[in-house]
C-alpha cells in the first residue's frame, strides 16, 4: 500500500496546520525532513529541511503501526498554520514518492487494519457531521463501539443456540431424530426480541441523525416567510404584501435546544394560473408531506390540506387579531418553538443505537432468518442460525463491507 499524506486541519491560516502521513515509509519521510525521531509518541521540536531549504520549525510525532489511528506507521507534523508552509512540505513529500490521500482514506485504512469496525467508521462520519448536542451523543455511542458490542452479544447467543442444534444432529439415532433442546428456542426468542427492539428504534434514530424538518404551510400572505425570518432572527426569505411571493422552498437550519431542526418556508397554498406559482405550490405540498411536522399558519388558525396528528395549528398576525402568534413582533414565537421542541423531543425519546439503513437491513435479515417454525428439521434450523450469525457480522462490516466503501469513506473530508 502507498504511503499517503494529507493536511488534517482545515486549509487556511491558523495557529497550527497538521499534516498526517501514513504507511510503510512514514518514518523515513519524517526523518528526511526532521532528522532522527527516535522515540514514538513523543513530541520533538525540529527544523524541517528539504535538502538545503529550511521550511519551518515544527513539532513532530511518530506512531508505531500497532499504536496509531490507521494501524500503519504514522507521522504527524504540526506546522505553523500557513498555506505556503503546508504546500512546501507537501511538495517535499511528493518528491519522496508519497501520494495525497483521498477523502476518508486514513479511516478506511483504520477499518481495513481492524482498528475500528464499520459501524464505528459510520459513527465517526456522523460525529464529524454532527451539528447539535443530540446528534453528537448519538454519534459518540456508535463510534465508541456500542454497535459492535451489541452484535457480539447477539452472535454469542446464536453460536450457543447453533451448538445445541448441531449436537442434536450429531447424536441423533439414525431412525429416531433427536429433538432440538428447548433451550435453543429460548435463546433464539431472546435474540429475536433484542433485534426487534433495536430495529423498532431505527426510524426515530435515523430521523435524529439526519435532522428533523418542520414545514410552515398556509395560504398566501399568511405571514409564513415573516415567521421564518423571526425564527432565524435574520432576513432569510423575501416578504411582501403580494400574495404568491414565495415559490421555492427556503430552508433555515437551527439548533433547537440540542435538536437539529430545519424549518421550511413554502409557497402559499392556492390554485393558481401562474405556472411557476403552481410549481411552487406542488413543491410546497411535497416537502410538507415529507416533513416530520407541519406548522399550519393562517388568519383563522385552521387546518391546511395534508394535516396529520401532531401538527401544530397557529393563528397568524396576533398583533392584528389579538390571538395566535406574530411573525412581525415576535409575540408567541417562543411558545411556538417550545411546542415544536416538545413534539420532536417526544419522538427522539425513542432513539436507540442503529441509525443507518445498512445496519437496519442486516438486523431485518437476521430477524427474518430467525422466523423458525417448530418441527423444522435440525439441519434447517442450524442453517437459519448460521444466516443470523452472518448478518450480525455484516452489521459491523466483518463481511460484505466492500460494497459500502465508497458511500461511507467518501463522506469524510480529505485528511480523515
Ligand atoms: N401585522 C402583521 N403583518 C404581518 C405579519 N406577518 C406577516 N405580515 C405581513 O403580511 C404580508 C405577507 O407576509 P409574508 O411573510 O410575505 O407572507 P407569506 O405567507 O410568506 O406569503 P406568500 O409567500 O406570498 O405565500 C407582508 O406584508 C407582511 O409584512 C404579522 O404577524 N403581523
Ligand atoms: K407574500
Ligand atoms: Mg412567503
TrEMBL record:
CDD domains membership: trmE (cd04164), TrmE_N (cd14858)
Keyword Acetylation: no
Residues that hold GTP according to the record: 221-226, 240-246, 265-268
Chain sites annotated for binding (6S)-5-formyl-5,6,7,8-tetrahydrofolate: 20, 76, 115, 416
Cofactor(s), names only, from the UniProt record: K(+)
Cofactor note text: Binds 1 potassium ion per subunit.
Domain (G): residue spans on this chain: 213-299
Primary location class: cytoplasm
UniProt keyword annotations, A-Z: Cytoplasm, GTP-binding, Hydrolase, Magnesium, Metal-binding, Nucleotide-binding, Potassium, tRNA processing
InterPro entries the record matches: G_TrmE, GTP-bd, GTP-bd_TrmE_N, GTPase_MnmE, MnmE_dom2, MnmE_helical, P-loop_NTPase, Small_GTP-bd
GO molecular function: GTP binding; GTPase activity; metal ion binding
Places the protein is found: Cytoplasm
E.C. numbers: 3.6.-.-
Hydrolase found in the keyword field: yes
Enzyme class: hydrolase
Role this protein plays: Exhibits a very high intrinsic GTPase hydrolysis rate. Involved in the addition of a carboxymethylaminomethyl (cmnm) group at the wobble position (U34) of certain tRNAs, forming tRNA-cmnm(5)s(2)U34.
SUBUNIT field: Homodimer. Heterotetramer of two MnmE and two MnmG subunits.
PANTHER family with a match to the protein in the record: TRNA MODIFICATION GTPASE GTPBP3 (PTHR42714), TRNA MODIFICATION GTPASE GTPBP3, MITOCHONDRIAL (PTHR42714:SF2)
Protein name, UniProt field: tRNA modification GTPase MnmE
Species: Paracoccus aminophilus JCM 7686
